[in-house]
Write a structure and sequence with these properties.
Structural class of chain A: alpha/beta
Largest sheet of chain B: 2 strands, antiparallel
Number of domains of chain B: 1
Radius of gyration of chain A: 62 Å
Structural class of chain B: alpha+beta
Shape of chain B: rod-shaped
Shape of chain A: rod-shaped
Largest sheet of chain A: 5 strands, mixed, barrel
Order of helices and strands of chain A: HHEEEHEEHEHEHEHHEHEHHHHHEEEE
Number of strands of chain A: 14
Strand order of the largest sheet of chain A: 1-2-3-5-4
Helix content of chain A: 40-55%
Helix content of chain B: 55-70%
Number of helices of chain B: 2
Largest interface: A-B, 40 and 39 residues
Oligomer: heterodimer
Strand order of the largest sheet of chain B: 1-2
Strand content of chain B: 15-25%
Chain lengths: 397, 71
């Protein structure tokens, strides 16, 4: 072969192509969109897939370090946008895209629609705090709108019955994704309201892509929730997903189980609370009674009761004392009077006519009047003659 | 077990705090106590009274009926 020494090896060629591509700035940083197909999530954590459009495809690889940062799980048929670089895998002589970040494409329009609707409804005040109704503390009937298959309704039932074995859960099965689901969900909410079939409503579905959750972003569902007189708890998608239903609902729960916990009170806990109230009532009353008893005992202990007699005796003593004092006083008065009286008597004695009578004189009275002159009487007059030792009557001759 | 359960619990809570304040006279304290115990018993009864039911609404050609639901 004439030019044999000129021929290059396969490796040389691939390396040359690789260097060629590496030099081209555009190929080092490209933003490309397409549809994923034969996606393989390798056990090493690297992701292998091809990106295609209607008439062409290109191999892609996303190393683990980038793959684990994805917020969603790529799957065949998904439209994505990729930021990465083109390079050659020399061993296979294949050029491929080394993806660094990936985003769901085609969501663009859905996502903007979501943002627009969210803004509009927010502006109409559907999300306002004042419209949020209080979740009843102990609902009789818990209405649930979700699909009758799948783990969501199971979780809700398990959590609810654990918290309150006597709970009544009324499921209204509704499609939770796909065409017409929003319509059914909205009708379901209205139906539960019209027939007053629950004290609280849980609207729930498991995780999924924005497309999967889309019914819960529809306006009719938002309005049904808003109009609902029955308080609504929404538990749609993963904890990190926020659908419009979540914003309008009276309460948003991160997961269906959390929704059940918010809707159904833990009966044992409520009963414990009731028992504690009963205890506190008893203790308060006991304390009150004890307080009263103390006050009663304090009174009883007071001297007034302990020795009722003592007080009375004291009084007796006082009375006696007073009596003695009175008696003394009387005595002194009497003696004083007596001596005064004796004095007077003595004085009277000296002045008293009786003394003269004792000396033999007498007093003649007529009709109680002392006869002082002979003219005071006339013949046959009746007179009394008073001697020292008595009286006699006499007639004037 | 619904709205009035909540109201009864609120009344119960009010009575407990009133009684604990302790400035009621003895008669009022006793009557408040009795009222509190009565309400707490009725709350308890309401909790136990509810009866477990897991049902599903089914639309049979326009007719909505309710059946038991096995998860």
């Amino acid at each position: 072969m004439k030019y044999a020494n000129l021929a290059i090896t396969v490796s040389d060629l691939n390396r040359y192509i690789k260097d060629k591509i590496a030099d081209d700035e555009n190929l080092n940083n490209i933003l490309i969109k397409g549809e994923i197909s034969n996606f393989k999530n390798h056990y090493t954590g690297h992701m292998y897939f091809t990106l295609k459009d209607e008439n062409s495809l290109i191999k892609c690889i996303m190393f683990k370090t980038y793959a684990q940062k994805l917020t969603f799980m790529p799957k065949d048929g998904m439209k994505v946008m990729i930021l990465g670089g083109v390079s050659v895998f020399e061993r296979d002589g294949v050029y491929q895209i080394y993806a660094r970040t990936m985003e769901e494409d085609g969501l663009g329009d859905l996502y903007t629609k979501y943002q627009e609707l969210k803004a509009r409804l927010e502006e109409q005040g559907l999300f306002d705090e004042i419209h949020k109704q209080k979740i009843p503390m102990a609902p009789k009937v818990v209405g649930v709108l979700t699909s009758q298959t799948g783990s969501v309704i199971k979780d809700i039932i398990n959590v609810s019955t654990r918290r309150n074995p006597n709970v009544h859960i009324r499921l209204l099965p509704v499609p939770v994704q796909g065409e017409g689901a929003a319509q059914k969900i909205a009708e379901g909410i209205d139906f539960m309201n019209e027939n007053n079939l629950a004290d609280v409503l849980i609207i729930a579905r498991g995780g999924g892509s924005l497309e999967d959750l889309w019914p819960f972003n529809e306006e009719i569902v938002a309005h049904s929730i808003y109009k609902s007189k029955i308080p609504v708890i929404s538990a749609v998608g993963h904890e990190t997903d926020f659908t419009i239903a979540d914003f309008v609902a009276d309460l948003r729960a991160p997961t269906p189980s959390a929704a059940a916990e918010l809707a159904v009170p833990d009966v044992y806990e409520v009963q414990r609370k009731i028992y504690s109230y009963q205890d506190r009532l008893k203790m308060a009353l006991v304390k009150k009674v004890e307080l009263m008893k103390l006050r009663y005992e304090k009174c009883m202990a007071s001297s007034a009761f302990r020795e009722p007699l003592r007080k009375i005796n004291d009084n007796y003593l006082k009375v006696d004392l007073y009596i003695k004092q009175l008696e003394n006083k009387i005595k002194t008065i009497q003696e004083k009077e007596k001596s005064r009286y004796m004095e007077i008597i003595a004085k009277l004695d000296t002045l008293s006519p009786l003394k003269t009578l004792y000396r033999g004189y007498s007093i003649t009275e007529k009709d109680g009047e002392i006869v002082k002159s002979k003219n005071d009487v006339k013949k046959d007059d009746l007179v009394d003659i008073r001697f020292a030792d008595g009286k006699k009557q006499a007639v004037i001759l | 077990m619904s709205k009035n359960f909540e109201e009864q619990m609120e009344v119960l809570e009010k009575i407990v705090s009133e009684l604990e304040k302790g400035d009621l006279n003895l008669d009022d304290s006793v009557s408040k106590f009795e009222e509190g115990i009565k309400i707490s018993k009725s709350c308890n009864k309401m909790l136990e009274e509810a009866e477990k039911k897991i049902t599903m609404l089914v639309n049979k050609d326009g007719e909505i009926s309710e059946e038991n639901f096995e998860a």
